[in-house]
Amino acid sequence: MKEDGYWSDNKKSEYDEKIWDPKRSELPIKELPASTACSSLPRKDKWGKLGIFEKALDFFGDGSFFLVDSPGHLAGNISALCRTRSRDGEPRWIFLAGDCFHSHHFVHYPEAPFGDIPIAPSGCIHVDPEAARETIHKISALRENDPSVRVWAAHAGSSEGYWEFSS
User: Fold this and answer.
1) What digits encode the pLDDT tens for the residues 94-133?
2) Which of 26, 34, 114, 156 could potentially form a cystine with 124 if both were Cys, beta carbons 3.0 to 4.6 Å apart?
3) Which residue segment(s) compose the domain that 75 sits in?
4) How far is it between the farthest Cα atoms of the chain?
5) pTM greater than the 0.85 cutoff
6) For residue 28, how many other CB atoms are within 10 A of its CB?
7) Structural domain total, the chain
8) Strands 65-69 and 78-85, how do they pair?
9) Parallel, antiparallel, or unpaired for β 149-153 and 53-58?
10) Is 88 left (phi over 0), alpha (psi -120 to 50) or beta?
11) 93 domain-assigned
């Protein structure tokens, strides 16, 4: 980041560099409010432990859709765990990983390098690389320990080889 708070002189960038600078950003970062619909989690604010994840919210209160605290990429980063069924009626889970990683290969290789982004304060795409790595390990363990779980990342060109997306 340059001294004046802007990312670079690259005018071809698709991003407004002001969104990355907290002093210039107009995007409010707020914690999600507690849900009154959730009854299955023990804590007062209804965010509680879900398996290997420290904080999750049973959004509808019926165990079908969980918001999962997924720190590392950006402040307030969350994912979702959704209950569904296969075509054959078998129970399945889809973990919507969002920006936790940008290639489905991280599910199978959680120690893969993030890559270098010299202009980023952390040196990579994640604000907190250590927390991001821990989140990736948890998602990888979830997938490895439960074959009914499928993982989708926001920017991946495929989802674990199950679905291919074209641009």
Assistant:
1) 999 988 887 778 888 999 888 888 887 888 888 898 999 9
2) 114
3) 46-153
4) 57
5) no
6) 5
7) 1
8) antiparallel
9) unpaired
10) alpha
11) yes
**DSSP assignment of 3-70:** TTS---S-TT-SS-GGGG-TTT------PPPPPSS--SS-STTSEEEETTEEEEEESSSSSSEEEEE-
Kindly report the CATH number assigned to the domain that includes residue 74.
3.60.15.10
Would residue 166 count as lying in a domain?
no
Q: What's at 44, amino acid-wise? A: K
Q: Name the token pair of 28.
A: 């409010």
Residues near 26 by Cβ (< 8 Å), separated by ≥ 6?
A: 18
pLDDT of 79 = 96
Q: How far apart are CA 26 and CA 12, in angstroms?
A: 22
pLDDT at residue 43 in the model? 44
Residue 18 counted as domain residue: no
> What's 133's DSSP letter?
H
Q: At residue 66, what are phi and psi to the nearest 5 degrees?
A: -115, 135
135: closest CA among 54, 66, 32?
54
| Cβ proximity of 152 and 162 under 8 Å | no
